[in-house]
Amino acid sequence: MIIEPRTRGFICLTSHPVGCAQNIIDQIEYVKSKGKIDGAKKVLVIGSSTGFGLASRITSAFGSDAATIGVFFDKPATEGRPGSPGYYNTAAFEKHAHKAGLYAKSINGDAFSNEIKEQVIQLIKEDLGQIDLVIYSLASPVRKHPESGKRFKSVLKPIGEVFSNKTVDFHTGNVSEISINPAEGDDIANTVTVMGGEDWKMWMDALQAENLLSDGAKTVAYSYIGPDVTKPVYRNGTIGAAKDDLEQTAFTITNDLKSIHGNAYVSVNKALVTQASSAIPVIPLYISLLFKVMKEKGIHEGCIEQIQRLYSQRLFGGDLDLDEKGRIRVDDWEMREDVQAEIAKLWESATTENLSEIGDLEGYSNEFFKLFGFKVPGVDYNVDVNEVVKIPSEA
Fold first, then answer.
1. How confident is the model at residue 139 (pLDDT cuts 50, 70, 90)?
2. pLDDT of residue 10
């Protein structure tokens, strides 16, 4: 079928298997071009099909020749109906990993559930024995708690007072004012339950109970801080409360791993275009300005560049360079004083009329569509493609 992008708000309803596959090839080639990383050899990635989780799996496999198990929750294609981009990404990743002689298997299901944890445990026992590195990169708006069965929903709200500021519709380029009402009732607690550290710890507890973590095993979860302009709705909002909980959980897990000399880290990463970030008011405008400034300074990075640098320079490079709260910071280039000073100046002047000049809205839009396999250089979207693609380890 001929597959075209169909959008609704910040969501693209279709995805392109060939475009997604080309994205994987491009990321693999980038990692290979940077040379080998003396990293972990047996890696579990929880939330492995898009964004930082996908980049972590690619970097582990093609940077360190690691065997990888990926856990994700994605929709396969059916005839006449494309699958989700994460499904196509995983199919392409496995294909190229197997071609390179690397072990790669994937489990598609709800990573919050006990059933998926048990499936992963059995697979590790049967195939790998133990794991050296666990990447936790889940981003979900809803969590069904495995013990109570209750469904919790996260919300994106400020805490304490109404937040008002500029935002942009990246489809039209229209800059407008937006106001978001503050959290109420159980909003904060529910968001922490979905996006905080509880499930990360549950995974680590389950793996450790079965002796599936090697001596010196590491685990990493991803977080974000951001600039002052996004803080009311992000870091000081409900999501920030969840991130605080996630970051605090790293210390608890490290303490739990003492007997095997293991460590848990949180890596604070750069603002990037993801399905999650596209849904956050203010963030698209901030990122479009950030892209412009960082590209002009020659320090722009995407997911794969961020994770390759995290692995090669920090996690396995001998210099974690932890901040005062014990976090790895690969948002260091984004948060440079000169970068933030320029963005603050541009923010004040940003309008619908001048954003295409002072920002990189086109770059933002292109990155958004690339998430779904569209606008990928080298792909002919007028060609009829087979939408039904299988993940090799599921076939």
1. confident
2. 78
Domain with residue 267: its CATH number is 3.40.50.720
Estimate to the nearest angstrom the gap between the alpha carbon of 204 and the chain centroid. 19
Distance CA 55, CA 302 (A): 10
Range of the domain at 228: 7-147+189-280+301-333+368-394
Is the pLDDT score of 289 beyond 80? yes
Residue 327 forms part of a structural domain: yes
Which residue has better confidence, 171 or 376? 376
Alpha-carbon span 23 to 55, nearest angstrom? 11
Which stretches of 127-262 are assigned E, i.e. beta strand? 131-136, 142-144, 151-153, 163-169, 174-180, 213-223
pLDDT tens column, 179-229: 999 999 999 999 999 999 999 999 999 999 999 999 999 999 999 999 999
Q: What is the DSSP letter of 186?
A: T
Other CB atoms within 10 Å distance of the CB of residue 261: 10
* Number of domains making up the chain: 1
For all residues of the chain together, what is the average pLDDT? 95
CB 265 within 8 A of CB 320: yes
Helix (H, G, I), strand (E, B) or coil at 47: coil
**Is the CB of residue 329 less than 8 Å from the CB of residue 361?**
no
Rounded (5°) CA angle 160-165-168: 135
Question: What pLDDT digit, counting tens, does each position of 20-55 carry?
Answer: 999 999 999 999 999 999 999 999 999 999 999 999
Among 234, 265, 286, 364, the one annotated catalytic:
234
Q: What is the three-class DSSP state of 321?
A: coil
Distance, CA of 282 to CA of 223 (rounded, Å) = 18
Strands (E), 41-158: 42-46, 67-72, 104-108, 131-136, 142-144, 151-153
68 SS3 class: strand
Q: Which residue has the tokens 């071009």?
A: 33
| 178 domain residue, yes or no | no
Catalytic status, residue 136:
no
